[in-house]
Amino acid sequence: MMKRFGVICAIFLIVNISFGQSLNDFVNKGLEDNDISQRLPQLDTLITIAKNNSPRLKFFDSDFEYWDGQITLEKRAWLNNINLDAAYGYGIFDNLSDQQIAGDPGSQTLFSTEQSRYTVGASIKLPLSSIFNRGRKIKNAKAEADKSKYQKDFAEWELEQLIVRQYNDLIKAHRLFFISNSIVESYKVQAVRADKDFANGAINVTEYTRLQQMLNQAISAFESQRSEFLIALKSLEGTVGIKIEF
């Protein structure tokens, strides 16, 4: 009886070892055939697309454009102190006589004519604040424009780091998802064998229950890894701004 039990254990151990080796071969070969990194867009391409679609980077572009315009406005602010006035009138006007124009004090005659009149005038005022604060205002506008540019550069660096991390997380999650699926399939095969062995009395209830629990745990791990894979995929798609097909 003990001899028979020893033979059964030896056979079970050999089967498990050979089955484990074939599973490893299957997983390794399967990962080569199902390498998601070979079907994903290139990392540089994803980074470029993400930069073009990033609302944050577009905000910094608009902010820089605004402050760049403010520099021009501050440089031209002195024009606000120059006023040009023009007026036009048409009707009957009283005019001085030639004698009055010549300076004859005895001539008091005015004559009326129907005519058009144009008047043009210019005035300049230079407040001291405009003179002394002009340079400072221009420097402030330039500083704001530079700050917006540097903020965009930093945001681009952060975006690149995020995409690299999410890209690698997606590849890792896909590989673990594939491996967990392979493990579930292997335990399903073992479960079928366990059903036959239990029906034939080759294994007891304890061993049969243990194999069923291992299958349930493998299925639970598979579902968890499936969720991680989908989260990694959606996170990368959300950052890049496109739907990734592979």
Automatic annotation (TrEMBL):
Pfam families: OEP. It comes from the Bacteria. Residues 1-20 form the signal peptide. The keyword Transport applies. Its main location: membrane. Coiled coil: none annotated. Belongs to the outer membrane factor (OMF) (TC 1.B.17) family. This is TolC family protein. It comes from Croceitalea rosinachiae.
